[in-house]
Give the backbone structure.
Amino acid sequence: MDSDRRGQWLRGVLDLCVLAALREGESYGYQLAQALDAAGVGPIQGGTLYPVLLRLQRTGLVTAQWREGTSGPARKYYRLTEAGRAALRQGGSAWLAFVAPVTAIVTKGVDG
């Protein structure tokens, strides 16, 4: 896939993907990036991920807490708030409503 196009798509949904990745529990940035990559989103650089996490923190959708590492430097752990869970539900529904017709249109173009 064209990396410019992927980047444009990702900018539109990365907040939602991060919220979804935090749904099961807290995580730190590098671990989030690995989880998103493993889920098929692709590699996310820190320069892209950390501003998203800061924005989500400032808007009250996630909380953050520094913790000392047992075998390395301190890490900032992020956790979904109730407002973040609500935003994930609402954003997820909106995304699904958007992507369904786009998928239908694109599928006709691919199959036809």
Remarks:
- The CA atoms of residues 66 and 76 lie 4 Å apart.
- The first strand starts at residue 27 and ends at 28.
- The mean pLDDT is 92.
- The helical segments are 3-21, 29-38, 46-58, 82-111.
